[in-house]
Design goal:
about 950 residues; alpha+beta; 31 helices
């Protein structure tokens, strides 16, 4: 007894202390009144019983409603985001029964009722979080159009709920019995589906009529119908289901739909009344109005409430002004205006009801659905009005077109196939076009639904059967699925079915009616895109991304199960670039295909072969776990690559370096395992060719230099480490500088200045050569323009830039050259592109076309290293070169002290073709004299200067100019 008395005193003292704290702290002290929740009530409206604290702060302290013993507690709730000035809603619920009560607390995202006209509330997430004074937090229920939470009240419990609001408004808050709420949603869903279906059919029908009767009023009426359909789809939430639009994004679409609704109504009014006949200024006003409304649709992206407010005002203004125009023209005897009076009267009634709803004067739950139905009726009247005028005297004008005919016309316009299943008799009817498309006999697909299983793909049968059974058993819902049907020739076609049940008088599904659409091309395109995204275009093998994905899967399986640990092989063909240079890229591609087929023969179905880079393959080996057998596999791969490949009457002998890394069961990632194999491969290349190396941790410091160099090269351009130097080219006739050849150097932060031989190969393999080449071309053109402006245009100097194979094979080369020449003012023909002989001979026809376009852009062309590759004298006249650059091997004296005889022939041939000659490798005065005697116009070599910076070139040119003046 004493313990009970002391407990009562304790609670009383605690309550008094809590009340004193609240009074002293200045927090709200108004007591809550608990709302009883009857057992038999389907829904309880809490909207007017909720205490709102707008922008109250990031925390709130509330006195709970008195419990059954009259005890009041204080609870404090903090917002999810500290520092956020949140708005709060507080209410209390009481369960007076002796049973547990489960209810759904529902706050809809959007309500037409009370949304407003100026900057209306277009819907938003209402509830951010709910905190009860006792028990667990309510669970959130799935809903696409409201914040729904499942609330449980124990017998005799009084629970206070503190709701953190997402915004500052709570248009409606109701407590529903779950079954009642479900029935309510289903009933509205059925109604909404019927409204959407009718609106869609009307839009299709008016569109078909526009095709049949091409007067301007039909596209105007059809546009209004489509705008209504779009508005209803957004209002009913169908848009969100199709496109998975977020709640905030729904505001943009809703505002845009209202703007389009107003714009299309204005277009219909203007076109139907033919206002251009009465006054030209009306057209200007209507045109400006329309432009404004289309601009409002764009404003919706940035400020949806503002756009919706303008659209609603415009809609009301259109109704009022339209009424004045209709009455004015009707009194003048204009028949179109007279025919439009009933339709416009309905529009004004709809606008009045919508305005009263938006301002909160009409608040019944049936108002919003009724307004949606009214819009469809309005579209129907618009269609009747248009047809009555346009088809006066005809069958359609006399009203003989039935609803059945409208739907038939709509299906014909859409081009869909009809699919109808009579459930009680188990008979399927399908449009004969489907059987004709599949090459089946007429009637093959009619009859029992089981007949479809014979032509359905095995992977789609269970899903198709389950969809039919579910819709029939549940007597609601719809089917929207894709499946494959087998044609008579064995090929499969993809079809998309959209169907829904038709219920009989007893509530059972008596028919399942829908449409079929051929989506084979769409599916094939999706499959091609997916395949191309993860496979190599040349060999069809998995690419690097898919290789890493399968390696990750192999690592995970080995961690959680008894699967073998994967072994990674990286196979890099030695000196494959020489194959491309010597035989051409087409032959190189054929060799890669051959290699891929040979390597694939050594693999089992569980293993993976991928193409990681140009001449680099990757293998994931999971079929072998014994180290000896893994080593034997590596040796077999090496022997396979060494096997000669016959090409025409020639044999190509290749070797490769192979790097191996074995997963050791650690937490190593798939990228790390692949990197280990690459490091082992590069280590093998250092001592190769034709070597196999297994990864060892010490190799990271020994063989990782190449990877590190490639990584540094990727950032070299950003860090401005790539520099240009220029080697003078001398005009032998007057001993003056005629131009420069641009050469690239890399000032590495650790290794110092690197020559092209040390990094160009890496740039070629990694694809960075394209960026480097464009950088060199841009900087050279800029520097050449500066030199020409300083030296004048008489005998302007030129500059040569080397072009790699990757650059000339790119389709963007022409655009790059055009952009460089447009940004830099240089004398036409003075920016010369140097192309090697082996490069143009890989594909002479393509090279001739590309070089001709380059020449037309105003760039010069120089054939570099002439005579070192093919005997291409017969092809030389086909290319638009203006300069031939003779390799230094033809300039050096031979063992007898004379220069090669072929040099004189090359110079003579070039002159006969109208080309100038630049001789490389001039080292002495004797070289210069003899080259001039042979007829060479230009010479290049250390005799005239080593590669120098742009500033040194400028000083050299300035000294030459000063000497010439004196």
């Amino acid at each position: 007894m004493n313990e009970t008395l002391w407990g009562t005193y304790g609670r009383l003292i605690a309550a008094l202390l809590g009340l004193a704290f609240v009074v002293l702290s200045g927090l709200p002290v108004r007591a809550l009144e608990a709302i009883p929740v009857p057992l038999d009530a389907g829904a309880v409206d809490l909207t007017d019983s909720v205490d709102l604290y707008l922008r109250y702060g990031d925390r709130i302290q509330i006195s709970t409603a008195p419990d059954a013993e009259g005890f009041v507690r204080r609870i404090e709730v903090r917002s999810r985001e500290p520092g956020r000035s949140a708005s709060w809603a507080v209410f209390a619920l009481r369960n007076d029964s002796d049973e547990q009560i489960d209810r759904l607390l529902v706050a809809p995202y959007f309500r037409m009722v009370g949304s407003g006209i100026i900057r209306p509330d277009l819907g938003d997430t209402r509830i951010a979080a709910i905190t009860p004074s006792q028990g667990f937090r309510p669970d959130r229920a799935d809903s696409h159009d409201s914040d729904s939470y499942l609330i449980t009240l124990d017998p005799g419990a009084v629970v206070t709920y503190v709701v953190e609001l997402e915004g500052n408004t709570l248009p409606q808050l109701r407590l529903w019995q779950p079954d009642t709420y479900k029935e309510n949603v289903n009933s509205f869903t059925l109604y909404q589906g019927m409204v959407i279906g009718i609106a869609g059919l009307l839009a299709l029908f008016l569109t078909v009529l526009f095709v049949v009767k091409g007067t301007i009023i039909f596209p105007a009426a059809a546009a209004f119908a489509w705008a209504v359909l779009a508005y209803l789809s957004i209002d009913f939430g169908f848009w969100n289901k199709i496109f998975d639009v977020a709640v905030r994004g729904d505001q943009v679409f809703r505002a845009g739909a209202e703007a389009m609704l107003s714009a299309t109504l204005l277009i219909f009014l203007t076109s139907y009344l033919s206002l251009m006949r009465w006054h030209v200024r009306l057209i200007y006003v209507a045109g400006l109005w329309l432009v404004t409304l289309f601009g409002v649709a764009g404003i919706a992206v940035f400020d949806a409430p503002l756009a919706a407010g303008i659209a609603r005002l415009s809609l009301g203004l259109t109704g009022v002004i339209g009424l004045a125009l209709i009455l004015f023209l009707a009194f003048r005897g204009f028949d179109r205006a007279i025919l439009l009076i009933p339709t416009w009267a309905l529009l004004l009634a709809w606008l009045l009801a919508a305005g009263m709803t938006a301002t909160g004067r009409l608040s019944n739950d049936l108002v919003a659905p009724a307004l949606a139905g009214g819009l469809v009726v309005l579209v129907l009247l618009v269609g009747f009005t248009v047809m009555q005028h346009a088809f006066a005297g005809g069958a359609i004008g006399q009203g003989t077109l039935s609803d059945f005919h409208r739907k038939a016309l709509a299906l014909i316009g859409a081009g869909d196939l009809v699919w109808d299943w009579e459930v009680p008799r188990d008979r399927v009817f399908v449009s004969p076009e489907l059987e004709e498309k599949l090459g089946l006999k007429p009637g093959t697909l009619e009859g029992s639904a089981r007949k479809w299983f014979d032509v359905l793909h095995a992977g789609d049968r269970d899903r198709f059967r389950a969809s039919l059974d579910a819709v029939v058993e549940q007597r609601r819902g719809r089917i929207a699925q894709d499946f494959r049907l087998r044609a008579s020739d064995g090929h499969y076609y993809w079809y998309r079915m959209r169907a829904r049940p038709i219920l009989g008088d007893d509530g059972e599904a008596v028919r399942l009616v829908g449409t079929l659409v051929d989506v084979t091309e769409i599916k094939n395109a999706e499959e091609r895109l997916l395949h191309d995204a993860v496979h190599d275009n040349l060999t069809g093998l998995p690419n690097r991304e898919l290789f890493l994905d399968r390696l990750e899967a192999g690592i995970l399986r080995s961690r959680v199960g008894d699967d073998p640990r994967p072994t990674v092989f990286v196979v890099d063909i030695d000196r494959f670039r020489q194959v491309n240079d010597g035989f051409g890229i087409a032959v190189g591609d054929s060799i890669l295909l051959t290699m891929a087929r040979r390597l694939q023969r050594h693999l089992k179905p569980s293993d993976t072969l991928a193409r990681l880079a140009g001449d680099q393959f990757g293998i994931i080996l999971v079929s072998e776990r014994d180290p000896k057998r893994i080593a034997a596999f590596a040796e077999a791969v090496r022997r396979t690559i060494r096997t000669p490949i016959t090409f025409g009457d020639r044999e190509v002998f290749l070797t490769a370096c192979v790097g191996i890394s074995v997963y050791d069961g650690s937490e190593k990632r798939n990228e790390d395992l692949l990197e280990d194999a690459e490091i082992a491969m590069y280590h093998a290349k250092r001592f190769g060719p034709d070597r196999v190396e297994a990864f060892k941790p010490v190799m990271r410091t020994m063989g990782g230099d190449r990877l590190a160099l490639e990584s540094d090269l990727r950032r070299a351009l950003e860090r401005e480490e790539i520099k240009l130097v220029f080697q003078p080219i001398m005009r032998l006739e007057d001993k003056r500088i005629a131009g420069f050849e641009a050469l690239v150097r890399w000032d590495h932060p650790r290794h110092g200045r690197l020559n092209p031989q040390e990094f160009i190969e890496i740039a070629e393999e990694s694809g960075l050569i394209v960026e480097i080449g464009l950088f060199v071309m841009e900087r050279t053109a800029r520097q050449l323009g500066a030199w020409q402006r300083a030296m004048g245009t008489t005998l302007p100097i030129f500059a040569s830039v080397n072009v790699s194979s990757r650059q000339i094979l790119r389709h963007d080369l022409i655009n790059d050259i055009r952009a460089v020449l447009a940004r830099n003012e240089v004398v036409p023909g003075t920016l010369k592109l140097e192309v090697t002989e082996s490069l143009v001979m890989e594909n002479p026809e393509y090279a001739a076309q590309v070089l001709e376009r380059v020449r037309e852009l105003g760039a010069g062309l120089s054939l570099d290293d002439f005579g070192t590759g093919y005997s291409s004298l017969s092809y030389l006249q086909r290319f638009p070169f203006d300069t031939i650059k003779v390799d230094r091997s033809f300039v050096r004296q031979n063992g007898s002290g004379t220069r090669p005889v072929i040099l004189r022939s090359i110079v003579s041939l070039a002159h006969d073709l109208g080309m100038e000659v630049v001789a490389e490798g001039a080292e002495t005065d004797e070289d210069a004299i003899e080259l001039y005697a042979l007829g060479c116009e230009y010479a290049q070599g250390y005799l005239f200067g080593e590669p120098m910076s742009a500033d040194e070139c400028r000083h050299l040119l300035a000294r030459q100019s000063a000497m010439m003046r004196h």
